[in-house]
Amino acid sequence: MEVFKAMGKMDHEQVVFYREPSIGYLGIIAIHDTTLGPALGGTRFWKYGSEEEALVDVLRLSLGMTYKAAVAGLNLGGGKSVIIGDPDTPRREMIFRAHGRAVETLKGRYITAEDVGTSVEDMDYVHMETDHVVGIAGRSGDPSPVTAYGTYRGMKACALEKYGDDSLKGRAVAVQGVGHVGYYLCENLAAEGAKLIVTDISQDKVARTVEDFGAEGVKPDEIYGVDADIFAPCALGAIVNSKTIPQLKCDIIAGAANNQLATEEDGKAVQERGILYAPDYVINAGGLINVYSELADWSTDRSKRKAGEIYQTLLEVFELAREEKLTTGEAADRIADRRIDRVGQLHKSRIS
After folding, report:
1. What is the residue extent of each domain of the chain?
2. Least C-beta-crowded within 10 Å: which of 70, 121, 238, 259?
3. Given CA atoms 217, 220, 224, 229 in this order, what sign does their dihedral have?
Protein backbone atom coordinates (compact mmCIF):
# COMPACT_ATOMS: atom_id res chain seq x y z
CA MET A 1 0.00 0.00 0.00
CA GLU A 2 1.15 3.55 -0.78
CA VAL A 3 1.00 5.13 2.69
CA PHE A 4 1.06 8.80 1.65
CA LYS A 5 -1.64 8.17 -0.95
CA ALA A 6 -3.79 6.47 1.70
CA MET A 7 -3.21 9.37 4.10
CA GLY A 8 -4.12 11.89 1.43
CA LYS A 9 -7.33 10.11 0.55
CA MET A 10 -8.75 10.83 4.01
CA ASP A 11 -6.64 13.98 4.57
CA HIS A 12 -4.67 12.72 7.58
CA GLU A 13 -2.09 14.94 9.23
CA GLN A 14 0.26 12.26 10.53
CA VAL A 15 0.75 8.50 10.68
CA VAL A 16 3.57 7.02 12.76
CA PHE A 17 4.81 3.41 12.90
CA TYR A 18 6.52 1.91 15.94
CA ARG A 19 8.22 -1.40 16.70
CA GLU A 20 9.98 -2.98 19.65
CA PRO A 21 11.10 -6.43 18.42
CA SER A 22 12.35 -7.63 21.80
CA ILE A 23 8.76 -7.83 23.09
CA GLY A 24 6.86 -8.22 19.82
CA TYR A 25 5.34 -4.74 19.84
CA LEU A 26 4.11 -3.41 16.49
CA GLY A 27 2.01 -0.23 16.67
CA ILE A 28 0.55 2.41 14.38
CA ILE A 29 -0.75 5.80 15.52
CA ALA A 30 -2.82 7.89 13.10
CA ILE A 31 -3.68 11.55 13.67
CA HIS A 32 -6.42 12.69 11.34
CA ASP A 33 -7.19 16.31 12.28
CA THR A 34 -6.31 18.59 15.20
CA THR A 35 -8.30 21.69 14.23
CA LEU A 36 -10.60 21.37 17.23
CA GLY A 37 -7.96 20.18 19.69
CA PRO A 38 -5.57 17.31 20.40
CA ALA A 39 -6.39 14.05 18.65
CA LEU A 40 -8.06 11.60 21.00
CA GLY A 41 -8.86 8.00 20.21
CA GLY A 42 -8.47 4.58 21.74
CA THR A 43 -5.92 1.85 21.21
CA ARG A 44 -7.19 -1.25 19.42
CA PHE A 45 -5.28 -4.53 20.02
CA TRP A 46 -6.11 -7.00 17.26
CA LYS A 47 -4.75 -9.97 15.35
CA TYR A 48 -4.85 -8.35 11.91
CA GLY A 49 -4.47 -10.47 8.81
CA SER A 50 -1.81 -8.13 7.45
CA GLU A 51 -0.06 -4.84 8.15
CA GLU A 52 -2.07 -3.27 5.34
CA GLU A 53 -5.30 -4.32 7.02
CA ALA A 54 -4.12 -2.71 10.27
CA LEU A 55 -3.24 0.53 8.46
CA VAL A 56 -6.60 0.73 6.72
CA ASP A 57 -8.33 0.17 10.06
CA VAL A 58 -6.40 2.87 11.93
CA LEU A 59 -6.95 5.39 9.13
CA ARG A 60 -10.70 4.79 9.03
CA LEU A 61 -11.04 4.79 12.80
CA SER A 62 -9.11 8.04 13.28
CA LEU A 63 -11.23 9.79 10.64
CA GLY A 64 -14.32 8.62 12.51
CA MET A 65 -12.95 10.07 15.75
CA THR A 66 -12.56 13.51 14.15
CA TYR A 67 -16.18 13.51 13.06
CA LYS A 68 -17.35 11.99 16.33
CA ALA A 69 -15.76 14.76 18.41
CA ALA A 70 -16.99 17.46 16.03
CA VAL A 71 -20.62 16.33 16.02
CA ALA A 72 -20.57 15.78 19.81
CA GLY A 73 -19.43 19.39 20.31
CA LEU A 74 -16.13 18.49 21.98
CA ASN A 75 -12.87 20.40 21.66
CA LEU A 76 -10.94 17.41 20.36
CA GLY A 77 -9.43 16.23 17.13
CA GLY A 78 -9.43 12.67 15.83
CA GLY A 79 -6.79 10.00 16.24
CA LYS A 80 -6.49 6.28 16.80
CA SER A 81 -3.86 3.64 17.38
CA VAL A 82 -3.63 -0.07 16.71
CA ILE A 83 -1.36 -2.75 18.10
CA ILE A 84 -0.85 -5.76 15.85
CA GLY A 85 -0.85 -8.99 17.85
CA ASP A 86 -2.87 -11.43 19.92
CA PRO A 87 -5.24 -9.51 22.21
CA ASP A 88 -5.59 -12.58 24.43
CA THR A 89 -1.92 -12.63 25.39
CA PRO A 90 -1.32 -12.59 29.17
CA ARG A 91 2.01 -10.77 28.66
CA ARG A 92 0.64 -7.24 28.56
CA GLU A 93 2.75 -4.93 30.71
CA MET A 94 5.74 -4.52 28.40
CA ILE A 95 3.60 -4.27 25.26
CA PHE A 96 1.51 -1.46 26.69
CA ARG A 97 4.45 0.30 28.29
CA ALA A 98 6.09 0.27 24.86
CA HIS A 99 2.89 1.72 23.46
CA GLY A 100 2.93 4.40 26.16
CA ARG A 101 6.45 5.37 25.08
CA ALA A 102 5.19 5.63 21.49
CA VAL A 103 2.32 7.89 22.57
CA GLU A 104 4.74 10.04 24.56
CA THR A 105 6.82 10.81 21.45
CA LEU A 106 3.87 12.81 20.08
CA LYS A 107 4.01 15.24 23.04
CA GLY A 108 0.26 15.58 23.53
CA ARG A 109 -0.83 15.78 19.90
CA TYR A 110 -2.42 12.38 20.47
CA ILE A 111 -4.20 11.14 23.61
CA THR A 112 -5.10 7.47 23.86
CA ALA A 113 -7.68 5.39 25.74
CA GLU A 114 -9.01 1.84 25.73
CA ASP A 115 -10.72 0.25 22.74
CA VAL A 116 -11.37 -3.22 21.33
CA GLY A 117 -8.92 -5.72 22.81
CA THR A 118 -7.70 -3.41 25.56
CA SER A 119 -8.76 -2.62 29.11
CA VAL A 120 -8.53 -0.08 31.91
CA GLU A 121 -5.65 -2.14 33.30
CA ASP A 122 -3.80 -1.88 29.98
CA MET A 123 -4.20 1.89 30.08
CA ASP A 124 -2.61 1.87 33.53
CA TYR A 125 0.48 0.32 31.93
CA VAL A 126 0.40 3.01 29.22
CA HIS A 127 0.20 5.62 31.96
CA MET A 128 3.49 4.38 33.41
CA GLU A 129 5.18 5.90 30.35
CA THR A 130 2.99 8.89 29.42
CA ASP A 131 0.39 11.25 30.86
CA HIS A 132 -1.37 11.44 27.48
CA VAL A 133 -3.89 8.72 28.28
CA VAL A 134 -7.45 8.77 29.63
CA GLY A 135 -9.80 6.10 30.93
CA ILE A 136 -7.38 4.83 33.56
CA ALA A 137 -8.39 3.38 36.93
CA GLY A 138 -9.56 5.92 39.48
CA ARG A 139 -10.63 8.46 36.85
CA SER A 140 -13.36 8.06 34.26
CA GLY A 141 -12.66 4.33 34.05
CA ASP A 142 -14.57 1.99 31.75
CA PRO A 143 -16.44 4.08 29.13
CA SER A 144 -18.76 1.22 28.21
CA PRO A 145 -21.75 2.20 30.40
CA VAL A 146 -21.81 5.77 29.04
CA THR A 147 -21.31 4.54 25.46
CA ALA A 148 -24.22 2.16 25.92
CA TYR A 149 -26.43 4.86 27.45
CA GLY A 150 -25.75 7.24 24.56
CA THR A 151 -26.50 4.46 22.07
CA TYR A 152 -29.73 3.68 23.90
CA ARG A 153 -30.79 7.34 23.79
CA GLY A 154 -29.87 7.48 20.11
CA MET A 155 -31.95 4.39 19.48
CA LYS A 156 -34.94 6.13 21.02
CA ALA A 157 -34.40 9.09 18.67
CA CYS A 158 -34.41 6.66 15.75
CA ALA A 159 -37.68 5.18 16.97
CA LEU A 160 -39.21 8.66 17.14
CA GLU A 161 -38.06 9.40 13.59
CA LYS A 162 -39.27 6.09 12.19
CA TYR A 163 -42.40 5.40 14.20
CA GLY A 164 -43.41 8.80 15.62
CA ASP A 165 -42.95 7.44 19.17
CA ASP A 166 -39.64 6.97 20.96
CA SER A 167 -40.80 4.14 23.22
CA LEU A 168 -38.81 0.91 22.85
CA LYS A 169 -41.18 -1.17 24.96
CA GLY A 170 -42.07 -4.29 23.00
CA ARG A 171 -39.67 -3.43 20.18
CA ALA A 172 -37.50 -6.31 18.97
CA VAL A 173 -33.82 -5.35 19.02
CA ALA A 174 -31.15 -7.63 17.51
CA VAL A 175 -27.83 -6.93 19.24
CA GLN A 176 -24.68 -8.15 17.54
CA GLY A 177 -21.90 -8.34 20.14
CA VAL A 178 -22.67 -8.44 23.86
CA GLY A 179 -19.28 -7.59 25.30
CA HIS A 180 -18.87 -4.51 27.47
CA VAL A 181 -20.96 -1.99 25.49
CA GLY A 182 -23.44 -4.50 24.07
CA TYR A 183 -24.15 -5.95 27.50
CA TYR A 184 -24.85 -2.54 29.06
CA LEU A 185 -27.00 -1.61 26.04
CA CYS A 186 -29.06 -4.74 26.64
CA GLU A 187 -29.43 -3.71 30.28
CA ASN A 188 -30.89 -0.34 29.25
CA LEU A 189 -33.16 -1.93 26.66
CA ALA A 190 -34.40 -4.66 28.99
CA ALA A 191 -35.26 -2.03 31.60
CA GLU A 192 -37.60 -0.41 29.09
CA GLY A 193 -39.17 -3.69 28.08
CA ALA A 194 -37.57 -4.29 24.68
CA LYS A 195 -37.41 -7.81 23.28
CA LEU A 196 -33.75 -8.82 22.88
CA ILE A 197 -32.22 -11.13 20.29
CA VAL A 198 -28.47 -11.42 20.79
CA THR A 199 -25.34 -12.99 19.38
CA ASP A 200 -21.60 -12.98 19.97
CA ILE A 201 -18.59 -15.07 19.00
CA SER A 202 -18.34 -15.87 22.73
CA GLN A 203 -21.09 -18.26 23.80
CA ASP A 204 -20.39 -17.41 27.43
CA LYS A 205 -21.32 -13.79 26.79
CA VAL A 206 -24.50 -14.83 24.99
CA ALA A 207 -25.43 -17.16 27.85
CA ARG A 208 -24.89 -14.39 30.38
CA THR A 209 -27.11 -11.96 28.46
CA VAL A 210 -29.81 -14.59 27.98
CA GLU A 211 -29.82 -15.36 31.70
CA ASP A 212 -29.66 -11.75 32.92
CA PHE A 213 -32.16 -10.14 30.55
CA GLY A 214 -34.30 -12.93 29.13
CA ALA A 215 -32.80 -12.48 25.67
CA GLU A 216 -33.00 -14.98 22.84
CA GLY A 217 -29.59 -16.17 21.67
CA VAL A 218 -28.80 -16.95 18.02
CA LYS A 219 -25.71 -18.00 16.09
CA PRO A 220 -23.46 -15.19 14.77
CA ASP A 221 -24.42 -15.65 11.11
CA GLU A 222 -28.13 -15.75 11.93
CA ILE A 223 -28.38 -12.27 13.47
CA TYR A 224 -28.70 -10.48 10.12
CA GLY A 225 -31.83 -12.36 9.10
CA VAL A 226 -33.85 -12.25 12.31
CA ASP A 227 -37.14 -10.35 12.34
CA ALA A 228 -36.44 -7.23 14.40
CA ASP A 229 -37.43 -3.59 14.52
CA ILE A 230 -33.85 -2.52 15.22
CA PHE A 231 -30.49 -4.06 14.34
CA ALA A 232 -27.75 -2.95 16.75
CA PRO A 233 -24.19 -3.75 15.60
CA CYS A 234 -21.96 -3.59 18.69
CA ALA A 235 -18.93 -5.59 17.56
CA LEU A 236 -16.45 -4.88 14.76
CA GLY A 237 -17.01 -2.68 11.71
CA ALA A 238 -17.87 -3.12 8.02
CA ILE A 239 -20.67 -5.57 8.83
CA VAL A 240 -23.32 -3.62 6.89
CA ASN A 241 -22.27 -4.59 3.39
CA SER A 242 -23.44 -6.02 0.07
CA LYS A 243 -23.72 -9.52 1.56
CA THR A 244 -25.59 -8.64 4.75
CA ILE A 245 -27.91 -5.84 3.59
CA PRO A 246 -30.18 -8.19 1.56
CA GLN A 247 -30.60 -10.35 4.69
CA LEU A 248 -31.75 -7.53 6.98
CA LYS A 249 -35.36 -7.57 8.18
CA CYS A 250 -35.33 -4.40 10.27
CA ASP A 251 -36.51 -0.79 10.10
CA ILE A 252 -33.53 0.77 11.87
CA ILE A 253 -29.77 0.20 12.18
CA ALA A 254 -28.55 1.76 15.42
CA GLY A 255 -25.57 0.31 17.26
CA ALA A 256 -22.33 1.09 19.04
CA ALA A 257 -19.79 -0.43 16.62
CA ASN A 258 -17.41 1.83 14.70
CA ASN A 259 -17.40 2.00 10.88
CA GLN A 260 -20.50 -0.15 10.47
CA LEU A 261 -20.87 0.57 6.74
CA ALA A 262 -18.32 -1.21 4.58
CA THR A 263 -18.58 1.52 1.91
CA GLU A 264 -20.45 4.77 1.29
CA GLU A 265 -22.52 2.92 -1.30
CA ASP A 266 -23.81 0.65 1.45
CA GLY A 267 -25.28 3.72 3.16
CA LYS A 268 -27.23 4.46 0.01
CA ALA A 269 -28.31 0.84 -0.33
CA VAL A 270 -29.66 0.84 3.22
CA GLN A 271 -31.60 4.05 2.61
CA GLU A 272 -33.04 2.69 -0.64
CA ARG A 273 -34.43 -0.23 1.33
CA GLY A 274 -36.19 2.19 3.66
CA ILE A 275 -33.97 1.39 6.63
CA LEU A 276 -33.07 4.32 8.90
CA TYR A 277 -29.34 4.32 9.69
CA ALA A 278 -27.94 6.10 12.76
CA PRO A 279 -24.41 7.16 11.76
CA ASP A 280 -22.14 5.18 14.04
CA TYR A 281 -19.84 7.99 15.11
CA VAL A 282 -22.85 10.03 16.20
CA ILE A 283 -24.71 7.39 18.18
CA ASN A 284 -21.65 5.84 19.84
CA ALA A 285 -20.01 9.09 20.96
CA GLY A 286 -20.76 8.38 24.63
CA GLY A 287 -17.41 6.65 25.10
CA LEU A 288 -15.53 9.68 23.80
CA ILE A 289 -17.64 11.94 26.01
CA ASN A 290 -16.81 9.75 28.99
CA VAL A 291 -13.04 9.98 28.55
CA TYR A 292 -13.24 13.67 27.63
CA SER A 293 -14.66 14.21 31.10
CA GLU A 294 -11.16 13.61 32.50
CA LEU A 295 -9.77 16.46 30.42
CA ALA A 296 -12.71 18.79 31.12
CA ASP A 297 -13.04 17.74 34.79
CA TRP A 298 -16.70 16.75 34.40
CA SER A 299 -18.61 14.62 36.88
CA THR A 300 -20.00 11.22 35.88
CA ASP A 301 -23.52 12.64 35.92
CA ARG A 302 -22.54 15.46 33.57
CA SER A 303 -20.93 12.97 31.18
CA LYS A 304 -24.10 10.91 31.15
CA ARG A 305 -26.24 14.01 30.51
CA LYS A 306 -23.95 14.97 27.64
CA ALA A 307 -24.23 11.48 26.18
CA GLY A 308 -28.00 11.82 26.44
CA GLU A 309 -27.80 14.77 24.04
CA ILE A 310 -27.06 12.26 21.27
CA TYR A 311 -30.86 11.97 21.07
CA GLN A 312 -31.23 15.57 19.85
CA THR A 313 -28.11 15.43 17.67
CA LEU A 314 -29.51 12.49 15.72
CA LEU A 315 -32.83 14.26 15.21
CA GLU A 316 -30.87 17.17 13.70
CA VAL A 317 -29.01 14.74 11.42
CA PHE A 318 -32.26 13.17 10.26
CA GLU A 319 -33.81 16.59 9.62
CA LEU A 320 -30.86 17.73 7.50
CA ALA A 321 -30.92 14.45 5.57
CA ARG A 322 -34.58 14.99 4.73
CA GLU A 323 -34.16 18.64 3.78
CA GLU A 324 -31.08 18.15 1.60
CA LYS A 325 -32.01 14.69 0.28
CA LEU A 326 -28.84 13.16 1.74
CA THR A 327 -28.11 9.86 3.37
CA THR A 328 -27.94 10.15 7.13
CA GLY A 329 -24.20 9.49 6.95
CA GLU A 330 -23.71 12.34 4.49
CA ALA A 331 -25.79 14.64 6.70
CA ALA A 332 -23.69 13.79 9.76
CA ASP A 333 -20.47 14.39 7.81
CA ARG A 334 -21.78 17.78 6.69
CA ILE A 335 -22.57 18.82 10.28
CA ALA A 336 -19.10 17.71 11.40
CA ASP A 337 -17.30 19.43 8.51
CA ARG A 338 -19.24 22.62 9.15
CA ARG A 339 -18.08 22.82 12.77
CA ILE A 340 -14.46 22.00 11.89
CA ASP A 341 -14.43 24.64 9.13
CA ARG A 342 -15.96 27.32 11.35
CA VAL A 343 -13.52 26.71 14.18
CA GLY A 344 -10.66 26.64 11.69
CA GLN A 345 -11.72 29.99 10.26
CA LEU A 346 -12.07 31.42 13.76
CA HIS A 347 -8.50 30.42 14.56
CA LYS A 348 -7.28 32.12 11.37
CA SER A 349 -9.19 35.34 11.98
CA ARG A 350 -7.55 38.31 13.65
CA ILE A 351 -9.67 38.92 16.72
CA SER A 352 -8.07 41.37 19.12
Report:
1. 3-65+78-127, 144-285+312-336
2. 121
3. positive
Alpha helical stretches, state H, the chain: 3-10, 51-72, 93-104, 120-127, 144-163, 180-192, 203-213, 264-272, 280-283, 286-296, 300-308, 310-324, 328-348
What burial class does residue 21 get, using C-beta atoms within 10 Å of its C-beta: 0-12 exposed, 13-18 middle, 19+ buried? exposed
Options 68, 80, 156, 306, the catalytic residue: 80
Maximum distance among all Cα pairs of the chain, rounded to whole angstroms: 62
Whole-angstrom distance, CA of residue 237 vs CA of residue 234: 9
Q: What is the pTM of this model?
A: 0.87
Mean of per-residue pLDDT scores for the chain: 94
Q: What is the CATH class of 3-65+78-127?
A: alpha beta
Q: Does domain 144-285+312-336 have CATH number 2.40.10.220?
A: no
Q: Which of 136, 79, 126, 62 is nearest to 99 (CA)?
A: 126
Cα 178 from Cα 144, distance rounded (Å): 11
Q: Is 306 a catalytic residue?
A: no
Distance CA(302)–CA(73), nearest Å, equals 14
Instruction: Write out pLDDT tens, residues 88-105.
Output: 999 999 999 999 999 999
Q: How far apart are CA 221 and CA 148, in angstroms?
A: 23
CA distance linking residue 39 with residue 4, whole number of Å: 19
Quick check: 335 and 299 in contact, CB under 8 A? Answer: no
